[in-house]
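Moderator note: this is an archived Q&A kept for reference. The question asked for a predicted structure of one protein chain; the sequence and the answer are reproduced below.
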Amino acid sequence: MKINYLKLFFLLTIFGFTSLGLRAQVRIVQVNPATNAIKLHNYGSDAIDVSDYYLCTLFSYGQLDGMPLISGTFNIPAGGDVTFTSDVDLTISAADLGLYNTNNFGSLSAMEDFTQWGSGGNGRENVAVAKGIWTAGTFISLPPPYEYSGDGNQNGSPFWITSLSLQKNQFPAAFEISPNPAKSYLSLEFYNNQESKQIKVFDVLGKQIYVQNLGSGVFVDINVVNWNKGIYIVKIETESSSQSKRFIKN
């Protein structure tokens, strides 16, 4: 039988790229700069061992292997998490955090995920921008700890919120959204009714499309019937705190 080696090479190449694309995807989903606690989530369909992965923050580096575990294992099962304490100190005021599959910190293929808070232009932001997973100069401008609110496919600061692991009665801007996705009305429930609040809604490009001032109410409904379908960010601001959450308009 005559073999078309060029065609075979082409098919193997395509298969190789396809297999690579199906590799388990691990992302940073929680960061607490005050305690150096970090949570990773495996969005892939297979377990993946991240013990030989590295963290990079403000050009300081550390390998995950040997970092103290809080919960889970570095061999993260599909859909699972691992939480650990970074032995590389995270600067609370402003810093970046990159997750790498090797110690080649300038490599686009080595960088798995990236986030930064407090200011833009930190550490390896340029690598994340070149990879297409971060926008230059953007950063999380909310109180820590931080939590990723996307589904694994979205990137950038709009998909990072303040983690509700904070006690709700200590966080005046804490709120819940329902339903999510929303089609007609978006309902907001607040856990603190002692402070006046301002509701701001931004589209995924950062354009403010809604604002409302509130007194001490616990519930509010927003009519979203005429809004375009897509992703929006709801930000609640009080005199002492702020919190942002993502919702989808269907």
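Archived answer notes: The first strand starts at residue 26 and ends at 32.
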